[in-house]
Amino acid sequence: MAGSKNVLEFTREDDFVEYYLFPIIDTIEKKEQEVILRSILLEANKVIEKYTKDYLWHKDEFKLAPRTSIYNSLIHIDGKEEYLPPHLYGVSHYGDNVEDEWFMVFILQQLTKEIKGLIARAYDVDGEFLLIEAANVLPRWASPETCENRVYIYNGCIHLVPPTSDENPTISVMEALSEIRSHSAETIASTEIQTAIQEKLKGYPEKTKDNLHRAKAYLPVSIAAILKKKPNLIAPAAQAFCNRDTVDMKACRAMKYFPPEDRVMTRVTFTKCLYAMLTHSKYMPDRRTGWNLPSRSATVYKAHLLGVKIACGFEILASQAKPSSDIESDKGWHAYLNSLKDKGYFKHLLEHSVEYNNLLNKAKEYYSNHRDTMHYSPAIGRDILELLRSRDLNMEELKNEENSLPEDDDDSWLDISPEELDKMLQERYGQKKTFNLNNNADATSFTEKVSKFLNHVSEIEGAEFPDNSVESSPIRPPRRNGKVSFTESARADAKSSNKINFDANNFSCTVQNILNFVIPEDDSWDLDSDDTMSDYENDEYIKNQSYEEGKSKMEAYMEQMDRELASTTIGQSFEKKQEESFEDIESFTPVDIDVNALKNILESYKSQMGEAGPSSTMLGPMGVHLDPKGQMDLE
Q1: pLDDT tens track for 555-594
Q2: C-alpha span between 124 and 136 (Å, rounded)
Q3: In contact, 225 and 389? CB cutoff 8 Å
Q4: Quick one: where's region Disordered (predicted)?
């Protein structure tokens, strides 16, 4: 584990994305590195400003800072610390709006396109998250463990540095950067990977405008003026209101900074995520505070209630502008402390022990010195109070604009019907072909799909589904010559370590025969084998029977059982084949195995009442999807 200082520095919430930009810097002199980095930072900020000028961040903005090689910039590989070359660094929290994360990836892509020599890297709590979008088209060696420090953006393209050895898949950032710069043609990712990731970035930066929602809100005049000057403050205000606690509610009842007496109707710009958060956060203000809402049927009711919520958010932020000197009353400290505990900072020490208290005091000191740079910060509240005291807030202009405001944007996107959801899923994952369960041909297709799955490849890491490409399976380990034989590898292991020789093909065949009540036609099924029939070695009847006699008797027994079942209620419940008939028994027709299998699967699925269960768990990954209306989709 890293030292306590690094744990204190790198403790953050899980909604973060961390990004690096590595330029070509050959000098080892710190001052020269700083000059070069600051020059590149100025150029990078121009590119960032071009794409983010009117962008409304949900939580943290995209921001870079220079780091020289002397700076304590490190990452960890297998518990070892690796110092990075000089670079530009940033970390941002995106909260509930994952679109911010992908917009940051787009910015990184543009930076590598527009500034020569830059190589970008980005990862989040999931690691190399860029590859998640391309999970179905990754090379077979790729896995969360083997891809660490191997994914970069260079000249606007994704680069994936392949391993050179199966035994040691780890690589340092320095080695990866060197490999990309010297062998970029070998490290550039496949066209399928590029396309999959580019699909997430398609439409930027134009589509950022589609993520905005504008609506009227009846606000205290001072807040309307503040938002006119700094519209991005709506994000922390909305989050402060939606994440309020009992302490924050006391501030909302007092409304010391933004009383409701003097209000104005204004138009506020939100992200769709922020607007949805505020709309669905239930709150009814205390009338004693001065809030006088119109009736629910009034056309302005929505604007009034939205204004109350925004005003409360600003009030909460302003009340946090002067943090208490008592750190124990700071809820940001408690969130920070919980993160430290989750990351093992206290090393399982007994609480209140001497060593525990020493680490706790170091954490308090670090938090007090860096409170303003952390996500939970009173700095925003101080900015709001500074704007509140500013004299250049033109309140008269707001009063004049009140009567000429445009209509609200359509918010019907808040409600999604099942049909619209299906359409969205189909656009994202492709069209499905629908079959009616009453069609016997479709039942045959269904059982063929299940049988194909049962007969397909399975390994220790899990089943490989027939529709997935073996070459592109992201969960398969590296193989020599493109194949792995379980039988051959088991034999090799048996010679070297006395392990069991397991023949997967014979085992699969045996299980399939048992399920199908089939007696093999060849001699591989030895009824007298000590290995397979040891439980019956003392049975005199079995000893006296030959293989052919046993087979003949079994077939006769199964046929007789079918005939007797045909006249029972159980037999009558089975679906029968209509095209065949038996002359000796007029009422007897053979059971349609395909239709009955499908019928039973459907009954099992219906009994799940829409919840997870064996049917959906088994059939879903195979591309078979059932719905409660008696339809199934085969992808």
Answers
A1: 777 777 777 766 666 666 666 565 555 454 455 556 565 6
A2: 20
A3: no
A4: 609-635
